[in-house]
Each structure stands twice: as structure tokens, then as C-alpha cells.
Automatic annotation (TrEMBL):
Any single GO BP term: chromosome segregation
InterPro entries: Chromosome_partition/occlusion, ParB/Sulfiredoxin_sf, ParB_N
PANTHER family in the record: CHROMOSOME-PARTITIONING PROTEIN PARB-RELATED (PTHR33375)
Gene Ontology CC terms: chromosome
Name the record gives this protein: Replication protein
Lineage: Bacteria, Pseudomonadati, Pseudomonadota, Alphaproteobacteria, Rhodobacterales
Region named Disordered: 1-37, 301-328
Gene3D superfamilies: 3.90.1530.30
ParB-like N-terminal domain: residues covered: 83-183
Species whose genome carries this gene: Seohaeicola zhoushanensis
SUPFAM superfamilies the UniProt entry points to: ParB/Sulfiredoxin
Pro residues: bias regions: 307-317
């Protein structure tokens, strides 16, 4: 029996092995296990990132707060921080006010303005170590608020807007701040400014005891001519101030003329003081008319003299030093001048070169002056 040889169904040529890795094709997604983190690692990473963000935010907030604190401190140093300050926490003892004592005829107008539109300009105070405040500027505004609070009882007027200065300024500096604000007021009189210079010089906490020198310190912002007027009014206020009831109403020209007469005429001050003391129940016009009479100026605004007004006194005797002679000082834009009058002689001394003036103009001016004396 013959055995048949099986026949091969397929002939497959297998590639020869070259040592290269066979190419494979995964059937599904393959996870990269090299970057795989567990839940704990993920939570730690997220916590670290959140911590970094929070620290960055806190640092930014601290920087902003520091900037705001520095700005607030700068505004405090400049006195630009405004707050509502209780009226009963404000004291007025450190500085002598430049306002004359007595009724204030314009206070009602100020109160009406505050009621209708509020306070447009805050007062200025200085913080004190005891928690209270010392008034620097705004006495009338504060008094208007106090009057409104007493009249209405409203809590709105129990506090007042105030710019708060830090404590530590010298008394001299506080006086200057008060004066500089008041110099822009149109209604402050030369008598009030003169009284302030007298009070400043008398204050034991200030550095100057001479009222004339105090004018240079207090009214440094004013011009030379205005300071000269204030010094003249110091003479008037210091000699007659306690006898005057309406010193702030004395015009500049009248005050200057009266001071010149007081320096020119011996014994004039006691005579004026005596008549003022005896002249009770007088008005502003009464007092000004009396002063004009002594100053030798017309009483133009006195239409109907009050009953019982004393008759004009005779002209007091003039000073005499070795013969009839009169001298007085006066103020001009060129500076302070001096006039000396004697029998047959009139001399004017002033820091000006009169030779530069045309002779005809000078002659005409002298003639007009002499005509005024007739």
C-alpha cells in the first residue's frame, strides 16, 4: 500500500529576523502612566496654587492699604482732612480772636445761608491731646452753627464740618494761619487788625512783645502800606480802645487823621476819652461824629445830631518846643513822611526827589495845598 505525500496548502515566506521590533497597533486608548497623579497629589497641587494666589492678593491689598495710609497721613499734615466735629468739643482759648466783641449784625445773614445751602467753607481746627479741638479759623461760622442749634434743637447743627490740623503747630503759626485767612475778608477793619496785633504781643506764648513788630510777623502777606495803616491804628486802639464802642466802624482816613491829631496836640487823648465816657447811649454815627470833630474832619454823614450831644470843645493847646511849632507824620506810597510847621515855615520830609517834578506842577500843587488851609 502506497502512502501518499500530503500536499502543503499555503506557502508563506516569513521575513528574516533583523533584530528590529515589530510594529504594533493598539486596539484602544493607551494611558500615559508616567504623568498620572493620584487624588492626594492633585489636591496638594491645587492647595499650593490657591495659597500662592491668596498670598499675591493679600500682598496687593496690603500695598494698596499702605498707599492709602500714606496719602491719608499726607492729607492730615496738610490739614485737608474734613470731618464732622461736635460743637461742644471745640475750644477757643488758645488764640485771641480778631473779631470785635459785641453783636454781629451779619450773623443772621450767615445763618440764613447755612440753612438754605449749607456750609460752603469748613472751619479749621487743631486736634488736641485730650480729644478736643482748638479753633483756628471760622469763629463766625461756628457761632452761626451754635445759634442755629440753640434755636432749632436739630442734631444737624450739633456738629460742624471742619478741616482738622494735626497737633504740634506753634502758637505763632496758628496766629498766622488765622490772619492769612482773615486778610481776604473785605469786612475786617483796621481797628480789629490792630487789636489782634496788641493781643498777639500780650500773649505770653508768642515770640514778640512789641505790637509794631508783631504787625510784620502777623501781616506778612499784606503790603507795606497796609501794615503802616495797622501800626497807626495800634496807636488809636491802645489809647482809646477801651472807651470806644464802635472801633471797627472807624474808616481808615478818619483813624489816620485822628492819630495825627493825637500826636500833634498835647492832652487830646484824655479829652476824647472823657467825652466818650460821658457820652452814653450813643450810636455809631454819634461816636464817629465825635471823633471827626477832634480829628478836624467834616461830619458829612450826621444829618440830625442827637439830643443832648455835648457842644464842641475848644481846640486844645498845641505842643511848643522853643516857639510855636507843629510836627506830624503821614504815610504815602513812597513811605512814611514828616511835616514840620512853624511861624513862617512849612517843611515836608519824604523819601522822594522833588527836583524831578516839573516846576509848574510843583508850584500849582503847593498853591492848591495852601488854598485848602484858608
Amino acid at each position: 500500500m502506497a502512502v501518499s505525500k500530503k500536499r502543503r496548502m499555503f506557502d508563506i515566506d516569513m521575513p528574516e529576523e533583523t533584530g528590529a521590533q515589530p510594529e504594533t497597533f493598539p486596539a484602544g486608548k493607551v494611558e500615559d502612566r508616567s504623568n498620572r497623579r493620584g487624588p492626594m497629589a492633585v489636591a496638594i497641587a491645587e492647595t499650593a496654587e490657591s495659597t500662592r494666589e491668596r498670598q499675591s492678593l493679600e500682598a496687593s491689598i496690603r500695598a494698596e492699604n499702605d498707599a492709602l495710609a500714606h496719602e491719608h497721613a499726607r492729607l492730615i499734615r496738610l490739614g485737608l482732612v474734613v470731618d464732622l466735629v461736635p460743637l461742644d468739643a471745640i475750644e477757643t482759648h488758645m488764640l485771641v480772636r480778631d473779631r470785635a466783641k459785641g453783636p454781629d449784625g451779619e450773623l443772621d445773614t450767615l445763618k440764613t445761608s447755612i440753612r438754605e445751602i449749607g456750609l460752603s467753607n469748613p472751619i479749621r481746627v487743631e486736634a488736641r491731646p485730650d480729644g478736643k479741638f482748638e479753633l483756628i479759623q471760622g469763629y463766625r461760622r461756628m457761632m452761626a452753627y451754635r445759634a442755629l442749634h440753640e434755636e432749632t434743637g436739630e442734631a444737624l447743627y450739633a456738629t460742624i464740618p471742619a478741616a482738622i490740623n494735626p497737633s504740634g503747630d506753634s502758637v505763632d503759626s496758628l496766629y498766622r494761619k488765622m490772619v492769612d485767612e482773615n486778610l481776604v475778608r473785605k469786612d475786617i477793619s483796621f481797628a480789629e487788625m490792630a487789636q489782634l496785633a496788641l493781643d498777639y504781643a500780650a500773649d505770653p506764648l508768642t515770640q514778640e512783645n512789641d505790637p509794631d513788630k508783631a504787625v510784620a510777623l502777623l501781616f506778612r502777606s499784606a503790603g507795606y502800606q497796609k501794615r503802616s495803616y495797622i501800626r497807626s491804628f495800634i496807636k488809636l486802639v491802645s489809647r482809646l480802645g477801651k472807651h470806644l464802642q464802635f472801633a471797627p466802624d472807624i474808616p481808615r482816613a478818619l483813624g489816620m487823621a485822628l492819630v495825627a491829631r493825637m500826636e500833634e496836640v498835647e492832652g487830646l487823648v484824655p479829652m476824647i476819652a472823657k467825652e466818650l465816657k460821658a457820652f452814653t447811649n450813643r450810636s455809631v454815627q454819634d461816636e464817629l461824629a465825635l471823633l471827626r470833630r477832634y480829628a478836624g474832619t467834616p461830619v458829612d454823614d450826621l444829618m440830625d445830631p442827637p439830643a443832648g450831644k455835648p457842644a464842641p470843645l475848644p481846640t486844645p493847646p498845641r505842643k511848643a518846643t522853643g516857639g510855636a511849632r507843629t510836627s506830624f507824620q503821614f504815610d504815602r506810597r513812597e513811605g512814611r513822611g514828616k511835616c514840620i510847621a512853624a511861624a513862617g515855615k512849612l517843611e515836608i520830609r519824604l523819601g522822594r526827589d522833588f527836583t524831578t517834578i516839573d516846576r509848574r506842577r510843583l508850584e500849582q500843587a503847593v498853591k492848591l495845598m495852601l488854598d485848602q488851609l484858608d
